[in-house]
Amino acid sequence: MSQSIMYHPDSLKDRRLARAEGIISYYFSNPVVLREALQLADASHQIGNRNLALLGNTVIHLILVQEGLRRRATRGQINKIISERSSNAYLAQQGFSNDLAECVFANQSQGSTIYPRPMASTVEAIIGAVFNDSTEELTTVKRVMETLGVSWPE
């Protein structure tokens, strides 16, 4: 018999999840997926959000390629946008500017400091989590990417 996980917005952990959902304007049917996306690797969470970040990175590339092709961009233009919008520096900047740092479950050895590379991974992981939770609905993922500023530039 499986146990269901209770979601209590009053707890600190659940407030972080609710805050992240508000930031990205997507509400998870399974908040555990979002919790995983916000968890940095540490001694007790050895993988942290790394698997979701890998998935998210791939989904970012897919959506940017699709949008570039829809806009009839050249391969060079598409590659340039992918390089810019999926770079660690850009993803970290978007994560910090959208106030996601306060939602991250940080590595205990680093205290409350969230560094740029883990923030970039968290943004990727959130996108991967939305992809999973939305049953791979690319329109939904694209909307979240737009909210985070990770979409094709206008």
TrEMBL record:
The lineage of its organism: Eukaryota, Fungi, Dikarya, Ascomycota, Pezizomycotina. GO terms for biological process: RNA processing. This is RNAse III. Residues 17-135 form the RNase III domain. GO terms for molecular function: ribonuclease III activity. It comes from the Eukaryota. It comes from Aspergillus campestris (strain IBT 28561). Signal peptide: none annotated. SUPFAM superfamilies: RNase III domain-like.
